[in-house]
Amino acid sequence: DAGVIQSPRHEVTEMGQEVTLRCKPISGHNSLFWYRQTMMRGLELLIYFNNNVPIDDSGMPEDRFSAKMPNASFSTLKIQPSEPRDSAVYFCASSLQGYEQYFGPGTRLTVT
Amino acid sequence: DQQVKQNSPSLSVQEGRISILNCDYTNSMFDYFLWYKKYPAEGPTFLISISSIKDKNEDGRFTVFLNKSAKHLSLHIVPSQPGDSAVYFCAAHSYNQGGKLIFGQGTELSVKP
Predict the structure, then answer these.
(1) Which of A45, A108, B1, B2 is buried most deeply by CB count within 10 Å?
(2) Taking an 8 Å Cβ-Cβ cutoff, which residues of chain A contact chain B?
């Protein structure tokens, strides 16, 4: 299996621009998680889906962030408009009704 | 409100010696604990886990200990190898929080030859 796939791996954008991060979970997994890693806050959960339905979005920092999962094999995390403080590494992870989550390689976002 | 804490941001150990990484938690409803390992430019990878009904789980060089009364768990790596140098995250699972994992801040382990 290819594992969790994220794209792009690196994104550099200017403040105010829209940013879209993409994730393809492991085939057959039914839960998908979006995380953000920063030096200050560590690894924090933004939102997660179960069977394509958002279950908990309490970690989404503000209305500029939105996430969708139109089907079992694809999810997006969108930031509009982006700000320099959004600069971080964003991870997507998936799991199959278990405790273990499998992480993608991450997207390093830099907002200038 | 940090429910899972790793108070040591970094740890340096000599090759061949024991590495001990610590993790404290506050929520007594956590039912499962996991350790993840992360290399630079990669996502975290699962390392070892322990159920809250156990106090020890061993897998090769890695052993996790759980002390429920102290709300403390630790990861022991014996013997430590240079390839173990990475950031280690402690995570806790709770059904009463929707089944999500709560991660600690991470501890960066450096194993020197």
Answers:
(1) A45
(2) 4, 31, 33, 35, 42-45, 48, 55-56, 91, 93, 99-106
